[in-house]
Every structure is written in C-alpha cells, then in structure tokens.
Design brief:
Helices cover 76% and strands 2% of the residues. The chain has 298 residues and is an all-alpha fold. The longest helix is centred in the middle third of the chain and has 43 residues.
Length: 298
C-alpha cells in the first residue's frame, strides 16, 4: 500500500508525457502529409503515434486509477472496451512497426532490387495495409469481448485474473489455444518481416558508408542523405521496440513460472509495455528535421 501512490504517480507521468508526445507527433505528421513534402512513411508514422496514444490511454490510465485505489467506475461494457483496446493497440503497434521498417527499406533500396516490386509506395496502399491491420487485430482479440467482466458482476473466486476492476474469466482450452496460436503467429510473421527489413537496411547503410569512404571526399563523408537519416531513425525505433518487447516477454514468463500473484505485487511488465509508446515519439522528434520544424511551428 505504501508503494501504490508511487506506482500511480509513475504511471500518471508516463501516460501523460507519452500521450502529449504522441499527439504532437500525430498532428505534426498529418500536417506534413498534407504539404508538398508528403511521403507514404509519414502516414505510417502518424498511425504509429495514434496506436501509441490508444495504448497509453487504455493501459496507462486504468493502471494509474487502480494504483491510487480510486472507486471502481467501470461496468462490464467499460471493462470490455478498455481491455479490448489495450490488446488491439498492442497488436497494431507490432504490425505498424513492421510496416514502417518495410516501407523504409523500400524507400532506400536500389531501383533494380526486389523490394521495389512491393506495392507500398502510395498512400492508398498504406491505407489498405493499415485497414487490414485493424481488421486482423480486432478479430484476434474478439475473445476478450466475451470473457472480460467487471469485478462487481462476477464471483471473484471464478475469475482468472486481471486488475482490481476487470477480470478475465476462465475460457475453454480450445478457445485459449486458438487465440494464443493466432497471436503467436501474428507476432512471428510481423517480427520476422521487421527483422528482415531491418537487416536489409543495415546492409544498405553499410554499403553506403563503404562507398563514401572509397570516394575519400570529406564533404560526402560527413553528409547524410535524408533517406539514410530516416532509415537510421527507423532502425533506432526498431531497436527500442525489440528491447521492450523481448524484456517484457522474458520478465512476464519469469514471473508467471516463479512468482505467484505477480500482477498484484510487481508492475514491471506494465511499465515495459508502456515504454516503447512513451519513448518512440521523442526519438522521432529528436531525429526528424521536418517534424522538429513542424513542432516549432505548432
């Protein structure tokens, strides 16, 4: 109980700072996308900021309210919406981050490469991909709409787990394995695409660096093209994503097998879940010159 106000304060700070940063990035990229300098990747980055905002509000705010032990204000419908949006936004974050690396790899790839054959060069193709991500993740999380209940409407001894307000009721083994398999396949496919695109960009950046060194031209040696700088920013975002994702998975598995009732004692997995959503907008603000100018203008 002594640590609850500290947890609530940290959650409130992370949620507030991350939400403001992502809203600023979202508005800025929408503004840039409407200008003459618009690129398809700006639409992907705006969607990533929107996804991070949804995750912070649906995951961070309930944890903040729970940590401060406020009165239960959620009913069954509210619990379903909050938990459902948190799960969907997590999947959207993975899919959008993967799409971001693929689009950036296509942008910097040579014209004769196979990457140029992918139809992700126009806003229409990007919008179709994002719509597919929403449908996919909405379907994968459909089980939550049935099994999530408010604590007031269910016997606490029948609940499987959750927060102080919402609980995940026991589900059949078949249902659990079907949705778990779908989530694992989604993560494996999109993270595999993310890894392949990131490795390809690292190879291209290395070749460019070797070419510049070969020219032995000081002006070229210290000048970074906008596309290459953007690729470096995307790689930095992906490293950040992989760090938080793998650390979250490892700690969650460790707590599940070796620590009982960890969700009531430790908030480390929740902090890690919010980490990428909080840090990513400030990486973009720091690295993207167009975004920095737009932020100053706003």
């Amino acid at each position: 109980m002594v640590l609850d106000p500290v947890k609530g304060t940290v959650f409130f700070y992370l949620t507030g700072v991350g939400t403001m940063g992502n809203i600023l990035v979202f508005v800025s990229y929408i503004h840039v996308f409407q200008s003459t300098e618009k690129k398809p990747i700006h639409l992907v980055l705006a969607h990533l900021a929107l996804t991070n905002t949804i995750m912070l509000l649906s995951k961070g705010m309930p944890k903040t309210i729970e940590a401060f032990n406020f009165r239960n204000f959620l009913d069954d419908t509210s619990c379903k919406v909050v938990v459902y949006l948190a799960r969907v936004s997590r999947g959207l974050s993975i899919c959008t981050s993967s799409l971001l690396t693929v689009v950036q790899a296509i942008t910097i790839s040579p014209r004769a490469s196979r990457w140029q054959r992918l139809n992700l060069k126009t806003p229409q193709h990007i919008l179709c991909s994002l719509l597919f991500f929403w449908i996919l993740n909405s379907l994968i999380s459909m089980n939550l709409l049935y099994y999530i209940k408010n604590i007031k409407s269910v016997n606490i001894t029948q609940s499987k787990g959750g927060s102080n307000y919402c609980y995940f009721l026991p589900e059949s083994r078949i249902t659990r394995w079907i949705f778990l398999t779908l989530m694992v396949l989604r993560d494996a496919v999109f993270q595999g695409a993310m890894g392949g695109a990131s490795g390809y960009m690292v190879l291209l950046l290395h070749k460019h660096h070797q070419h510049v060194l070969y020219l032995q031209n000081s002006k070229l040696l210290y000048r970074t093209l906008p596309e290459l700088r953007a690729a470096q920013s995307v790689l930095l975002l992906m490293l950040c994503f992989v760090f938080f994702y793998l650390t979250d998975c490892f700690i969650s598995l460790y707590f599940s097998f070796f620590i009982e009732s960890y969700s009531k004692i430790l908030y480390v997995p929740e902090f890690l879940t919010l980490g990428y959503a909080v840090i990513s907008p400030f990486i973009l603000i720091h690295r993207d010159e167009h975004l920095t100018k737009c932020c100053h203008t706003l």
